[in-house]
Amino acid sequence: MNNTKPLALVTGASSGIGETFARRLARDGYGLILVARRRDRLDALARELGGAESLAADLTSEADLKLVEERIATARNLELLVNNAGFGTKGRFFDIPVDSQDRMHRLHVMATLRLTHAALGGMVARGKGGVINVSSVAGFGQSPGNVSYCATKAWINSFTEGLHVELKRAGSPVKVQALCPGFTLSEFHDVVRMDRKSIPARLWMRAEDVVDASLDGLARGKLFVVPGPIYVLAVKLISCIPRWARIALAIRYSKEVKTD
């Protein structure tokens, strides 16, 4: 890998928003370290992008997480970390196996925390770099059947905001961003067997548009990036509604959740 290029590490890079980040960053001249569980797809993408480094890892595994942390520590020209790896589940928290919820917290919370910590030390010392933590519009509220997903994305929002405050207080130019997309066309919803037709077509966004909004926002130092005017409006409305009212609305109008 050319060590003169700025380097970006993208997790969850084998599909969806992560793959789109990888393609866009390669086009923008970054060297890439691609992290995901599926080695075959990861290696194929790395070859297609001209020799990007592929690092197969399950970030819910302690051993694999340490492996990625160590790789970040040796990446002296790392200028961007994209914590994108994530997944959703379907069903009420008290009905579904706890293992899936445990893995979700490990991936969304602990992996984001540890990889960000591994990256920021070097970035702050070098005086440049950025971290994008992929959150969700779901992080601004709660809904039945998505308790852990909403909670972990809310944690990402709070964590990223706290980092932003610390970096600004320290006088560091390093940037952090919470990227909060709504419904995005990717394999994410196929995994949880969600019927896309149940969501109005106008609410679906292309991954390319989400990534463009994120990188444009990062260049401008924007802490929260919510792609799409519909979702910007939704988040503003949510912030104006008192918590008691949001809870009441969620209880009354959310669809019944069926656990398979």
Write the element-wise H/E pattern from the N-terminal end onward.
Answer: EHEHEHEHEHEHHEHH
Assembly state here? single chain
Largest sheet: 7 strands, parallel
CATH homologous superfamily classification: NAD(P)-binding Rossmann-like Domain
- Number of DSSP helical runs: 9
* CATH fold label: Rossmann fold
**Helix/sheet category:** alpha/beta
* Radius of gyration over all CA atoms, rounded: 18 Å
Strand order of the largest sheet: 3-2-1-4-5-6-7
Q: Tally the structural domains.
A: 1
N/C terminus separation: 46 Å
CATH class: Alpha Beta
Question: Ranges with pLDDT <50 over ≥5 residues?
Answer: none
On the 0-100 scale, what is the average pLDDT?
A: 92
Could you walk me through the main structural features you see in this protein, from its secondary elements to its overall organization?
With 260 residues, this protein is an alpha/beta fold. It has one domain: Rossmann fold (3-Layer(aba) Sandwich). 49% of the residues lie in helices and 13% in strands. It has 9 helices and 7 strands, in the order βαβαβαβαβαβααβαα. It has helices at 16-27, 39-48, 62-74, 98-126, 147-169, 188-191, 207-219, 229-240, 243-253; strands spanning 7-11, 31-36, 53-56, 78-83, 130-134, 175-179, 224-225. It has a 7-stranded parallel β-sheet, with helices on both faces. It starts with 6 loop residues before the first strand and ends in a 7-residue tail after the last helix. The model has no long low-confidence stretch (mean pLDDT 92).
